[in-house]
Every structure is written in structure tokens, then in C-alpha cells.
Design a protein that fits this description.
This protein is mostly beta strands. It folds into two domains: about 45 residues; about 110 residues, Immunoglobulin-like. Helices cover about 10% and strands about 35% of the residues. The two termini are about 20 Å apart. The relative contact order is 0.29.
């Protein structure tokens, strides 16, 4: 199925649509900062311009993994190459990247971090695939748009977003 530029309305299709899933990648931050400086977060991904992208995150002596993850989220969100495709966030000591749009899973997506000019982190070169990405049919249709499955005689409504459609039978 194709991509659409936010049309709305009702569309006829010949089968049930596939809902989209935004890819999520995460990594737990390990180590309390024991010396001021910059931690280096390297983001790798197929669609990221200039990949791999090394990003310096200013940290301070005593920053816990939770604080470091939160600081990294702010700095990574300010990076145009990464934020064009992903939203960075943190949850406790985990640093998380969530795709803005549903798409087929990017097996090359990775978050690595290490001590740049700081000390105290336990470097980690690989991240975890928390949620695999799935390209939803008719990505781009406005929330509230309807699809009519002419084969199975069912009506589906996009109850998600244009970027990550979720189709529910009405």
C-alpha cells in the first residue's frame, strides 16, 4: 500500500488494512558520572543522514544514570539528523529512541554510548530492539479516516495518527 499526504475521507480497499508500529530502540545507562565532561552517544540508522552520528552530551560529576539518560534525550532531540526520524526520551535510567513514523523495522538502528571527556560511565556498544517497526497500510491517512474492505465487507477507522495508523473495525 502507498504513502499519502494526509488525505481524509473514505477509501475502498480489497482487504483488511495493516496497522503501523513505530520502532523503539532503548539502552540502559550504567554508571554514575565521576568526572565532569561529555558523554558520547553514537546513533546509527539506515535513514539517518551522516550515520553514524556522534553526539556529545554534557554531564556533571554525580549525575546518576537517570540524570544522564534525561540529559542525553534533550541533546539528541536537538540534533537535526536524528530528530528528523526519531524522538529521544528517557524512562528512569533508559535512553529511548522512538520512530516518528511507522516503517519497516530498521535492523541497523543502534544506540551506543561511552565516556567522551567524562568518566564514570560503563560503555555500551549495542542497544536493545524494544519494539520492531511495522509499516502500516495507508500511512498518511488522517486520524478518523475510513477504509472499506470490499472483500470482507468491513469498515475500518484509523484510530491512530497519520504517521502511525491503527485500524479498528467499526
Amino acid at each position: 500500500m502507498g504513502f499519502y499526504s494526509n488525505p481524509s475521507g473514505t477509501f475502498a480497499i480489497a482487504a483488511a488494512p495493516t496497522s503501523g508500529v513505530a520502532q523503539v530502540e532503548s539502552t540502559p545507562i550504567v554508571g554514575t558520572i565521576s568526572g565532569d565532561g561529555n558523554a558520547t552517544f553514537t546513533i546509527t540508522g539506515a535513514g539517518i543522514t551522516g550515520s553514524p552520528v556522534a553526539i556529545s552530551v554534557p554531564v556533571l560529576n554525580g549525575d546518576t544514570p537517570t540524570v544522564t539518560a534525561a540529559k542525553a534525550a534533550v541533546v539528541v532531540n536537538a540534533n537535526a539528523a536524528v530528530s528528523a526520524l526519531y524522538v529521544a526520551s528517557s524512562n528512569a535510567a533508559s535512553f529511548i529512541l522512538t520512530a516518528i513514523k511507522c516503517a519497516a523495522n530498521d535492523a541497523t538502528l543502534n544506540i551506543a554510548y561511552t565516556n567522551g571527556t567524562c568518566t564514570g560511565l560503563t560503555p555500551d556498544a549495542t542497544s536493545d530492539d524494544a519494539v520492531a517497526g511495522v509499516l502500516g497500510d495507508f500511512r498518511g491517512l488522517d486520524a478518523g479516516s475510513f477504509l472499506i474492505d470490499t472483500t470482507n465487507k468491513k469498515v475500518y477507522k484509523n484510530t491512530g495518527t497519520a504517521n502511525v495508523p491503527t485500524y479498528t473495525v467499526q
